[in-house]
Amino acid sequence: MKAEIEVDLEPRSLAGTAVNVLKCTGGCKKILLHAVDMKIEEVLVNGSKASYTYTGKELEVYPERASKGDVLEVLVRYRVVEPKAGVWFVPTDNGKPYIAYTQGQPEDTRFWLPTYDYPNRKAAVELAIKAPKGLKVISNGKLLHRSVEGDFEKWVYRLDSKIPTYLIAFAVGDFYVKEEECDGILLQYVVPKGRKEDIERSFSKTKEMIRFFEEYTGVKYPYPKYSQVCVDEFVAGGMENASLTILTSATLHDEKAHLDFRSEPLVSHELAHQWFGDLVTCKDWSHLWLNEGFATLMEALWRRHELGMDEFVYDLVGMIDSYLAEYGRYARPIVTRLYKYPDEVFDAHSYPKAALVLWTLANVLGEEKFREGVRRYLEGKREQNADTEDFRKIMEEVSGLKLDWFFEQYVYNAGHPSLKVSYRWDEREKILELRIAQTQGDDSLPKYRLPLEVVIVGPEYREERKIWIEDRQHTLTFHLPSKPRNVCVDPEFKVFKALTLDLPPDELLGIVTACPHLYPRIVAVRELGKKASPTHVDELAKILLSEEEFWGLRSETAQAIASIGGQRARETLLQALNQVKHPRVRRAVVRALAGFRERDVAERLAGVLLDEDESYYVRAEAASSLGKLGFREYSEVLVKALETKSHNHVIAASALESLALLLGDGALSILEKYLAPLTPMPLRRAAVASLGYLTPAQKVLSLLEQASKSRHPHIRLAAVSACMRSLSPKVIPILERLQLDASGRVARGARDALEQIRRHLEKGEEYRKLREEIDKLREEERRLSERIERLEKK
Ligand SMILES: [Zn+2]
After folding, report:
1. Which residues place a Cβ less than 5 A from the ion ligand 1?
2. In the beta sheet, which residues pair with residue 99?
3. Residue 765 has pLDDT above 80, yes or no
4. How remote is the CA of residue 269 from the centroid of ligand 1, in Å?
5. Is the peptide bond before 333 cis (omega within 30 degrees of 0)?
6. Confidence bin at 147 (pLDDT 50/70/90)
7. How far is the CA of 272 from the centre of ligand 1 (A)?
8. C-alpha 291 to ligand 1 mean position (Å)
9. What's the rounded Cα separation, in Å, for the pair 478 and 428?
10. Is residue 561 scored above 80 in pLDDT?
11. CA distances from 443 to 25, 339, 762 (A)
12. Cβ atoms 707, 719 nearer than 8 A
């Protein structure tokens, strides 16, 4: 694939030639290229004019005489003006563009480059980008040369490794570029001018990460360079274009944000894709988990490497949480062909669930064997495509195990195992009876097969046992010298499953306070939140207030205390607000306090919101909690917070949402100020989404309508959220239009919102019918009693 493209920022257009080099594998009558909304000026095959048909989406080229073995160079001369996707000009909606960048995944490269645009074809790429002189251009691979041509400068890049079209990318802008080297690889950090000082905080771990991934996978970083380019108003979080990751500039942050915000999760995830996704690419989107599951797992493994076991395990807990949240809405097999838009499979099944399944596989095989399998997978499929069966076979070869059962239950079927664990100690017989039941419902398999580690810790002993769970019910007995202190099932979270502990509160408290492993403590503290009484608050408070304990556990404790509720809980959380230092824990405390609808709580939270010594994220949380508490008199404090500068505008954005919650229609004039196209993206999104809290009067509807026509998909998504919140039938026309959106995410969001509104309306209808029935019954009852009265009188 070769292209020469002139990028003109001001008119938001590009023009040039694209050359697809193809080899005929048989007789070749026509060649199909994807090309959306282009003006096709000319098509040449091997230098001669060729006939073609163009539908606005596909370009069919008819080569004269081509037979098996022939190499065809198909050149398309074309022009694109204001593309709807694929290449983005910043600012997106209005104003003079200062950045242009591409986003190809899943199938948007066709909006700027005529080519065969599916992941299952890979090619070496040479891109010559002509951009206005003075701007920087970054693209895939090595920079071959630069030359000035009039007001433009041409930058020629080449990547010899074969990559799929969705990874072809460029970025043009007034950037600051910092460079260094890592074992012969050129590393570039590219940021908008003025953000130079923030590079270190976000990217200083890059070198170490590359070495870690090379070591873990046994495969060298595959490209000659690695550029990380930050762009404003990015349409995704990060995109792993081969050797050129594009990231949201929102990941850049100042010293203060660094207290409780890190770029490493994003940076490590995108870097891991250079192996998983770029070097080896999923054959089609139904096997996306091979890209995203691995990137998500590698991100967690980097965290384990950098921050330790507790951080890693808590990351796994976060993964199952986000999967279960999605599972509450729908369940699908990880590998599925049932989707309308490819964007649909970019969900919590492909990311966290898939990562947990891979981690489970690593533990079934043993991590060393797993790593060996990963190495063979990457080497064996280098610069090629792979599907799930390819991966399974390699893992079977390396382990010598049959793994069809594993893939069948976790990858090709929907749902997950739910384990309910309980135990009883018999003091007279010195026997522990441990019961493990599979309790998953009909949307999952009736029985799962999985290995479980059980660790029993007593005053002077430790028992470890590895068991295979296969049946719905398992009862295990252990003869022990004395009553165990802790019984831990899967203490290190090695197996993907939902786990509940069916134990009395005191036993749960014992796990929370004394278990040597984090995962059982998290499960137990969540269970306690449901079962405990105010008598347990003091014990939980010790953990919450101890700076020695892991912040994740402390945060969970704050939530559990809030769930227990009552005066003691409230006092404890307010005391925590005085004492706790860790900003992540403070955030959890502030969030937990939203459950106590009292004025003095609001007063304290207002204090947090206005306190400049607090972290941005704690203050933003305070703004949210104030909205939830519902005291209108705090709207003044929130209005003041709108002026507060913070990382990614988190404080002002939360304040805006809370104002809409508190004031309803009274917030319209405030929201309107933040709806203007040049408002920073996070504030504009918050303002649009907050319109959903207002009565859908004509004015609100027209503002929503306007937002739904934004060029930026995030603004259109915010409009969808607003519609979802309002649940009013008046927004249906807006959603019906968005259902046909160029962005699959927006289209899908609109479809889901429409479904919810319809269900809501039906419920309204059901409710009306029910009322009518009740009224009828009442009327009947009245008549009956009158009759009885009459009869009695007689
Ligand atoms: Zn990813």
Report:
1. 292, 295
2. 90, 173
3. no
4. 6
5. no
6. very high
7. 9
8. 7
9. 13
10. yes
11. 45, 19, 25
12. yes
What does the block give as tokens for 165? 């079209």
Contacts of 218 (CB under 8 A, 6+ apart): 371, 372, 374, 375, 378
**CA distances to 187, 296, 368, 413, 732 from 406, in Å:** 39, 20, 18, 10, 44
Residue 199 in tokens: 């590079």
Report the separation in Å between the CA atom of 266 and the middle of ligand 1, taken as the mean of its atom positions.
9
The pLDDT tens digits of the residues spanning 662-683 come to 999 999 999 999 999 889 999 9
The Cα 208–Cα 552 span in angstroms is 25
pLDDT digits (tens, 9 = 90+) for 18-38: 999 999 988 889 999 999 999
Distance in Å, CA 103 to ligand 1 centroid: 13
User: Is 511 in contact with 546 (CB distance < 8 Å)?
Assistant: no
Closest CA to 492 of 524, 521, 525, 461: 521
| Complete DSSP assignment for 644-704 | ---GGGHHHHHHHHHHHHHHGGGGHHHHHHT-STTS-HHHHHHHHHHGGGS---HHHHHHH
3-state secondary structure of 193: coil
DSSP letters, 70-101, are: -EEEEEEEEEEES-SSSEEEESSSSS---EEE
- 237 C-alpha to center of ligand 1: Å? 9
Q: Which residues partner with 418 through β-bridges?
A: 498
Lookup result for tokens 């699908």: 332
Tokens (6 digits) for 151: 């007001």
Nearest to 530 by CA among 552, 499, 505, 497: 505
Q: Distance, CA 148 to ligand 1 centroid (Å)? A: 36
Distance 422 CA to ligand 1 centre (A): 38
362-408: pLDDT as tens digits = 999 999 999 999 999 999 999 999 999 999 999 999 999 999 999 99
Q: Is the pLDDT of residue 769 over 90?
A: no
DSSP string, 14-68: EEEEEEEEEE-SS--S-EEEE--S-EEEEEEETTEE-EEEE-SSEEEEE-SS--T
| pTM exceeding 0.90 | yes
Number of residues assigned to the chain: 794
Work out the pLDDT band at 652, boundaries 50, 70, 90.
very high
CB atoms within 10 A of CB 379: 14
Tell me the CA–centroid distance for residue 560 and ligand 1, in Å: 32
> Per-residue pLDDT tens for 699-741?
999 999 999 999 999 999 999 999 999 999 999 999 999 999 9
Ligand 1 center to residue 239 CA distance, Å? 7
Give the model confidence (pLDDT) of 211-239 as tens digits. 999 999 999 999 999 999 999 999 999 99
Find the radius of gyration of the CA atoms of the chain: 30
Q: Calculate how far, in angstroms, residue 419's C-alpha sits from the geometric centre of ligand 1.
A: 30
Q: How far is the CA of 113 from the centre of ligand 1 (A)?
A: 23
Q: How far is the CA of 292 from the centre of ligand 1 (A)?
A: 5
H helices of 230-288, where? Answer: 264-273
| CA 233 to ligand 1 centroid distance, Å | 18
- What distance in Å separates the CA atoms of residue 533 and residue 565, rounded to the nearest whole number? 8
Which amino acid, residue 83? P
What three-state secondary structure class fits 700? helix
Predicted local confidence at residue 320, as pLDDT: 98
* Two tokens, residue 458: 């007593």
Calculate how far, in angstroms, residue 265's C-alpha sits from the geometric centre of ligand 1: 11
Spacing, Cα 719 to ligand 1 middle (Å) = 25
User: Are the C-beta atoms of 696 and 723 separated by less than 8 Å?
Assistant: no
Q: How many whole angstroms from 350 Cα to the centroid of ligand 1?
A: 9
| Cis amide linkage into residue 222, ω under 30° from 0 | no
Residue 359 CA, chain-centre distance (Å), reads 18
Ranges of beta strands (E only) in 222-276 are 225-231, 238-239, 244-248
Centroid of ligand 1 to alpha carbon of 240 (angstroms): 7
Query: Which residue in the block uniquely carries the two structure tokens 């319209």?
Result: 668
Distance 501 CA to ligand 1 centre (A): 33
Q: How far apart are CA 396 and CA 391, in angstroms?
A: 9
> Amino acid identity, residue 634?
Y
